[in-house]
């Protein structure tokens, strides 16, 4: 069916996919602002917290910012699994720099700190530690992250650190037990959804990428997608794609409000 749908609407491939290169992404305001703030945080070797609802585009913005870094000046350590624990975080750091992790936990912590410092002082590259789904990190893991930035007699940090997660992360960090981490945090950015105008532009952008520069979705359809998705990119993608399928099934040349209502009922139910 996918091949028939693509042929029907003249797509070179299916639109609204997630496999876009950073240069092909839609540049709405919250995305641009997140990328700019993340880049500043990294260059300042600070701790940054980027939060947002599921599908708000946090990881995409982080990926875009990291793709713009000079690899001769920065070394990225990306940890997608927050459940690896304190030891897992230290092991991943040490493994990144090609060293066998120490067996004793206290020595491993020191080892992780030393390899980060060596990367900065001896090789001139700033380590960038990125922890995705950070709202699932334990208090101990968050404190371990702070300790990694606490070298050099409390002077400048040897690394930049990005904590990326859902809004509960910011509430967690305000707890007294994490006061030291909260005080060290230089960047706090919560990603909002797109505006109605941005959602319209977003859908048009993705359609243009696959060979449809004309208006395939009616204004009513786009309005309903925006309202239902609250402007969050992932939800817009899902609803727009399901709306296309519904329009194709109904043998329509345009994706109208009726097709989108059918998609909404399937997604919500």
Describe what this molecule looks like in 3D:
By secondary structure, the chain is an alpha/beta fold. The chain is 51% helix and 12% strand. It is built from 12 helices and 5 strands. It has a 5-stranded parallel beta sheet, sandwiched between helices. Helix 4 packs parallel to helix 5, helix 9 crosses helix 10 and helix 11 crosses helix 12. The longest helix is centred in the middle third of the chain and has 17 residues. The protein is elongated, with a radius of gyration of 22 Å.
Question: Which terms would index this structure?
Answer:
51% helix; 269 residues; elongated; 12 helices; 5-stranded parallel β-sheet; single chain; alpha/beta
Order of helices and strands: HHEHEHHEHEHHEHHHH
Radius of gyration: 22 Å
Oligomer: single chain
Decide which structural class fits the backbone.
alpha/beta
How many strand units? Answer: 5
Give the averaged pLDDT, no decimals: 92
- Count of discrete alpha- or pi-helical segments spanning 4 or more residues: 12
Give the biggest beta sheet: 5 strands, parallel
Distance between the termini: 23 Å
What is the percent of helical residues?
Answer: 40-55%
Beta fraction:
5-15%
**Shape estimate:** elongated
- Give the uncertain stretches in residue-range form: none
Q: How are the strands of the biggest sheet laid out side by side?
A: 2-3-4-1-5
């Amino acid at each position: 069916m996918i091949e028939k749908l693509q042929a029907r609407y003249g797509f070179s491939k299916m639109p609204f996919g997630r496999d876009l290169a950073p240069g092909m992404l839609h540049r709405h305001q919250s995305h641009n602002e997140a990328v700019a703030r993340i880049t500043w945080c990294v260059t300042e070797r600070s701790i940054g917290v980027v939060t947002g609802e599921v599908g708000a585009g946090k990881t995409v913005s982080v990926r875009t910012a990291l793709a713009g870094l000079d690899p001769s000046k920065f070394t990225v350590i990306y940890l997608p699994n927050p459940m690896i624990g304190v030891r897992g975080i230290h092991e991943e750091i040490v493994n990144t720099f090609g060293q066998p992790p120490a067996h004793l936990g206290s020595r491993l912590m020191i080892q992780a700190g030393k390899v980060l410092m060596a990367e900065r002082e001896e090789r001139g590259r700033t380590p960038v530690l990125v922890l995705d789904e950070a709202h699932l990190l334990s208090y101990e893991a968050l404190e371990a992250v702070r300790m990694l930035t606490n070298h050099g007699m409390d002077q400048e940090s040897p690394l930049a650190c990005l904590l990326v997660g859902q809004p509960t992360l910011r509430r967690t960090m305000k707890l007294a037990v994490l006061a030291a981490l909260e005080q060290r945090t230089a960047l706090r950015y919560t990603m909002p959804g797109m505006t109605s105008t941005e959602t319209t532009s977003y859908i048009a952008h993705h359609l243009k990428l696959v060979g449809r520069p004309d208006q395939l979705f009616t204004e009513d359809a786009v309005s309903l997608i925006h309202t239902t998705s609250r402007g969050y990119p992932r939800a817009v993608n899902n609803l727009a794609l399901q709306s296309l399928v519904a329009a194709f099934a109904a043998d329509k040349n345009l994706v109208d409000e009726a097709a989108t209502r059918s998609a909404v009922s399937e997604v919500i139910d």
